[in-house]
Design goal:
Distance between the termini: 95 Å
CATH superfamily of one domain: Glucose Permease (Domain IIA)
Radius of gyration: 30 Å
Low-confidence stretches: 197-202
Largest sheet: 8 strands, antiparallel
Shape: elongated
Order of helices and strands: EEEEEEEEEEHH
Mean pLDDT: 81
CATH topology of one domain: Glucose Permease (Domain IIA)
CATH class of one domain: Mainly Beta
Helix content: 25-40%
Structural class: alpha+beta
Strand content: 15-25%
Oligomer: single chain
Number of strands: 10
CATH architecture of one domain: Distorted Sandwich
Length: 223
Amino acid sequence: MRFIWPLDNHAISRDFYYRGSIYIGGQHMAIDIPANRGAVVKAVAAGKVREAGFSDINGNYVDIGHDAGWRTKYRHLMEPAFVNVGAAVFQGQVIGRVGSTGWSTGPHLHFDLWNASRQSPEAVYKVGVWAHNPELYLGQEDDEMDEAEARRIAKEEANFAVKVNRENQDGFNQHLINLIRQAITAAVADHAAGPHTGKDEVSEARMRDIAREEDDRLEVTKR
């Protein structure tokens, strides 16, 4: 089974062996991949969505089942996953965006790689599954990904970029609408108040006088 990286960034801030009291058994048994908020998260392999939801610990998350007993889980997403339970996903499909929901101190992807049975010596038993070190399995597409698969991934990323651009444009359009409404409201209020008198009219008359004086000076200079 081949797994691609779920993010374009391959840096790891907490590895599989990281120890902490908040983890089951005291070991991380997953990897944390830091990234900017909103960075796209991809399915590492084709499969079917087992779970998708929100919890206090995981934040927004999605759990995908794959062939040969493999499962992957993507946690702390910025918003609900883009795929629903039961949906089929292909390798490289955008399934969400990096966030910091749930038990998280900053934007990153907490990524789990599980199997129903032990596939390598480092695997640790964890509540009915064997947790495996993702670093040993990710990135296998570098030499083996075929052209059709690469095109499909590129198309999915392009579609996602169009979606984000459309959302940004919609937000900008709404901003313009709000400005126009404010201008109309101000104009209506100004009209209801009646014609301006007093100081504004005096100021305008004074400005005309200054302009006339400047014209007279200009005429004198010409002579």
